[in-house]
Structures are given as structure tokens and as C-alpha cells.
Amino acid sequence: MRWWLAGFYGVILSLAAGSSAYADSVLRVGHFPNLTHPQPLVGRETGEFEKDAGVKIEWMAFNAGASAMEALLAGELDLAYVGPSPAVNAYVRSKGRVLRVIAGAASGGVALVVRKDMGIRNPADLRGKRVAVPGLGNTQDVALRSWLKANGLDTGDSADSVQVMPVKNPEIFTLFQRKELDAAWVPEPWATRLIQEAGGALFVDERNLWPASKFPATLLVARTDFLAKNRALVKRFVATHVDITEAIIKNPDEAKRIINAELAKLMGKPLPAALLDEAFTRIAATYDPISGALLKSARQAWELRYLPGAQPPDVQPIFDLSLLNEVLRERGKPLVTVTATVKR
User: Does domain 110-212 have CATH number 3.40.190.10?
Assistant: First the structure.
């Protein structure tokens, strides 16, 4: 079933080959309406990106990484905030042609939540249970399956296997409330919503699985041809991205207010203050893509056969941090380097 990704990206690459040229009056940027995408939520609400870039920004909200990558590869997006797995998948299947990671965006903010009434107290209790992720082959799916494997649990067809179910985040919430799911590995604010509003309990905070509690939940990626032709524009965008990241870190209460205002527009209503406060404790805004953890995640995706090849693909060239480091150098800040993979 997982090899549907190969056909999917094959179609997308054919679209990318015929994508239209960049219209220099509009910059098209994708993101998710999740708390793990704090910079676009803040910038979309305040207009800072548009003001600093000097062009109109057309924002597009997506609910899944595959959809965002489809739009980027088809030339319908210039930049995108997206999780590591969709970005790596697109990169590998295009043989490194279609995108580059130009900055990080968020670390943390992902958790495994279980139903309180299921009596799940250790990983073995998940045998035979239904566990949801937001999408097949997405970042949370890779994290969940790798964690299950590390704990001696399989995802096959036997009665003792864990049933991993790809379901969109809003539907996960509904099914969880109806007790049609037993657990879910999801990003914020959905993890906290399951805990506070749907009878869930925090079982695994993914930060605890990584060195220094850091892993890339969200990246900023650019379409390769767009980046090559519009480096000055992308640099201005990255500079604003750095500014917003630092503002979120320095003043989280103001950031939460702005983010919630934008979420209210995108989702129809704001998040309750208590929910927002708890969810934010698990998220760290960052412009560092945390490259070692990303490379480890890519290795895990290959081990799960989400990536092709007899050997793990060389993913390290996916990074182009030159513009980010130009911005940091001009501001007298430490540069961001690509590091070797990390143990987990």
C-alpha cells in the first residue's frame, strides 16, 4: 500500500516539468493551520512577510503534507511550511531536483495520545488497538511506526498488530470522541484537544525520544527553480521568518494572541485559552532545521519502505541554508550548520 507514493510523485513530477513561470507580483506560500506552523500564522495575521518581501503574498492553507508538496511540485507554490517526511519524499523521488530546505520552523509539538478508558499503560497495551495518524507516510506516521517497531510491535494484519489508520486531523478528533479510535499520534493543537476535549491522556511526548528534546516538526522549503531565480526575494522572506521566530520566543503570550486570531479566521473560532497555553508548552519556534534529526527521520522512512532504493538515500544535499546564514551573519548571530545524523 505504501508504494502508492511512488506513483503519486511520478505524476507530480510530470506536472512540475510544465509549471508556469513565476509571476513577480505574487509570492505563493503554503502552510498548515497548526500550532506547529507558528511563523506563517503570525505573519499572515500581521502582514509582516508581505511588507518586508515587497510583493503580495498569496497564502494557501493545507491539511496534509502530500497536498502541499503536490502544489509546490506542480508550480502552484513557491515556498511551503511542511513536515520533514513529505519534504524528504518529494526530494528523493525527484532525485534532488525539486526543493530545498532553507530553514527550520518548529521543534516539538507532537504527541501520542491514548483514550483514558482503554487502560493503556505501556506500549504492549497497544496490541490490537486502532491508532490514527494524519496521513500515510507523513511525519507523524513515520514517527509512530518507528516507535512501534522499536517497542517490538508490528503493524501487520494479525489480531495482535497495531492498526495504523491515516485520517485527517479533524476526523481524528471526531472519531476519538466517538471511541472509534484508541490512540493518535498528532501535532498540536490536536494532541491537546484530544486530551482536554475528547477524553485522552498524554502517552508519549515525542520530544522525549530525541536528544536535547529537539526534532524538526516543521521546515521552510523552497521550490528549487524558484529559489535559483529569486534569491533576493527569498532572502527577504527568510529574514522576516527569523524576526518572527525571535519575536515568538521573546514574547510567547503576544504570539499566542496573534496566532489564535489567525486560527479563528482559518478554522471558524479561536482555541480556548487553556488549550492554547498547554499546547504551546510542547512547541519551540526555531529557524534551525535540526538537520541531524531530519536525517535520522529520513533513514527511518527508508527503513519503513516509504523511500525507494536498496540503500538509504543521500538526503544531506536537501539543505540550502546559505540565505539563512547570510541573514544570521549580517545580524551577528551564530550560523546554522548541517550535522550528522543523531541516535534515537
Answer: yes
